[in-house]
């Protein structure tokens, strides 16, 4: 009997790995992927103990703060200004379709009522489950909720920090058991996927800590076995519709449902992290409204609305969503410049939203003058920059016949010529007050 049981367990373990290597997403997962591509616009929230120090979410690593010192921050964490209704209402009014909340960052602090770590929000003066409050409000207002979860940990001794690239200065000397750490993550993920209602996605980060640094042609091998097939299967078993993504900056792994690009439009690599090529999976670009993810007291490099909008349009034109980040202040309030930016986006979306929602990347890549989005029967031309051209020419235009052409803002008809699949029309002036002239071509 013992031999038979062992054989069954070994076979089950083997099939577990095999099933994820040959991952076939369920119908509800495929439906969720399509909805994700239609949504186009999300809000990222980086908030945690690190917010108190006002030097970004990497402060523990950057300042080499020992674990026992950093842990003292939980005794001061009391963001009484946090109001889930205000957060979700701000996002919804801006046209945001989903929120991705940081539940646990690299510092190992859990923002929910977890029974698998004492280093959590219930052991602070705040004593409230922030994840639950935000998730409940999202469900109430009809905004989807996704959870960011760090694979990397700068505090635990069973995390393999001795092979990792970061967290070397946090004072750990004991080397724990890696399998214990994997079990810990599975337990926490199970909590997040069973206690907070429907979860639209799990957004992993930190996998890169166990790899060589980002560079062209780097190996995709890791310094240890992350057990990702097991972790991905656990998620898909608990919530089949939940989309799994991993910010590892490499080709998507088996079992992943979308691909993200950090601070870059897919196909670009301005920040030196995105050497990977866009895949056939749904795509997402994550970006910051200033230069920081977590609250940075001295960061006043806020993007103009025009820069914000260009990111959204260029992401959509590249067949990707934009996940725009906010870093709340230590008191739990959202900085006013971020509130202003999202309000401006909401006003813009009320007029131009149809050129973003439900579209796919244009038949042309991003151009010097702007980008193209499209949906069945419609092509949207977004003029974002004036480079001195009086006319714009689109070769290999997908419509053989155009039924109508007009400015989306006021439905004003525009003149054009379509000959031998080449479309020509007058350009329009854009500036800070009018940052995107959107022209609609209807046809077939």
Automatic annotation (TrEMBL):
A GO MF label: alpha-L-fucosidase activity
Question: Mind telling me what this protein is named?
Answer: alpha-L-fucosidase
Query: So what does this one do?
Result: Alpha-L-fucosidase is responsible for hydrolyzing the alpha-1,6-linked fucose joined to the reducing-end N-acetylglucosamine of the carbohydrate moieties of glycoproteins.
* Similarity comment: family membership: Belongs to the glycosyl hydrolase 29 family.
Site note May be important for catalysis, residues: 286
The catalytic activity of this protein is classed by the Enzyme Commission as: 3.2.1.51
- UniProt enzyme class: hydrolase
Residues in Glycoside hydrolase family 29 N-terminal domain copies: 19-354
**InterPro entries from the entry?**
FUC_metazoa-typ, GH, Glyco_hydro_29, Glyco_hydro_29_N
Q: Which GO terms describe its biological process?
A: fucose metabolic process; glycoside catabolic process
Which organism was this protein described from? Elizabethkingia meningoseptica
SMART domains with a match to the protein in the record: Alpha_L_fucos
Cellular compartments per GO CC: lysosome
Keyword terms, alphabetized: Glycosidase, Hydrolase, Signal
* Pfam families, alphabetized: Alpha_L_fucos
């Amino acid at each position: 009997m013992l031999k038979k049981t062992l054989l069954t367990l070994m076979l089950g373990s083997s099939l577990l790995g095999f099933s994820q290597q040959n991952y076939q997403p369920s119908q509800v997962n495929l439906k969720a992927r399509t909805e994700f591509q239609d949504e186009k616009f999300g809000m990222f929230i980086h908030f945690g103990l690190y917010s108190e120090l006002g030097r970004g979410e990497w402060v523990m690593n950057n300042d080499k703060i020992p674990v026992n010192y950093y842990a003292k921050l939980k005794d001061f964490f009391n963001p009484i200004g946090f109001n889930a209704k205000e957060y979700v209402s701000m996002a919804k009014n801006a046209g945001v379709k989903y929120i991705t909340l940081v539940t646990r960052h690299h510092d190992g602090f859990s923002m929910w009522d977890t029974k698998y770590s004492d280093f959590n929000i219930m052991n602070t003066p705040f004593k409230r489950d922030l994840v639950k409050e935000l998730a409940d409000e999202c469900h109430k207002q009809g905004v989807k909720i996704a959870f960011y979860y760090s694979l990397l940990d700068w505090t635990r001794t069973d995390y393999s920090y001795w092979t990792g690239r970061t967290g070397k200065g946090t004072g750990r000397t004991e080397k724990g058991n890696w399998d214990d750490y994997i079990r810990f993550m599975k337990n926490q993920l199970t909590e997040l996927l069973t206690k907070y209602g429907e979860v639209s996605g799990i957004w992993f980060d930190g996998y890169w800590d166990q790899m060589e640094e980002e560079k062209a042609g780097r190996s995709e091998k890791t310094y240890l076995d992350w057990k990702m097939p097991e972790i991905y299967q656990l998620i898909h078993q608990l919530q089949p519709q939940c989309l799994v993504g991993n910010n590892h900056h490499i080709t998507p792994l088996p079992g992943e449902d979308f691909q993200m690009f950090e601070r870059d439009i897919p196909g670009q690599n301005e920040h030196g992290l995105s050497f990977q090529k866009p895949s056939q999976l749904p795509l997402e670009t994550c970006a910051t409204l200033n230069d920081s993810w977590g609250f940075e007291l001295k960061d006043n490099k806020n993007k103009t609305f025009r820069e914000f909008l260009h990111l959204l349009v260029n992401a959509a034109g590249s067949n990707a969503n934009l996940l725009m980040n906010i870093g709340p202040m230590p008191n739990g309030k959202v900085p006013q410049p971020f509130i202003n930016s999202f309000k401006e986006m909401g006003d813009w979306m009320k007029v131009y939203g149809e050129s973003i929602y439900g579209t796919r990347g244009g038949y042309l890549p991003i151009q010097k003058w702007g980008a193209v989005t499209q949906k069945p029967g419609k092509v949207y031309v977004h003029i974002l920059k004036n480079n001195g051209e009086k006319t714009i020419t689109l070769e290999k235009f997908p419509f053989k016949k155009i039924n109508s052409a007009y400015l989306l803002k006021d439905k004003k008809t525009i003149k054009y010529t379509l000959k031998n699949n080449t479309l020509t029309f007058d350009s329009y002036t854009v500036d800070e007050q009018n940052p995107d002239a959107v022209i609609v071509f209807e046809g077939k």
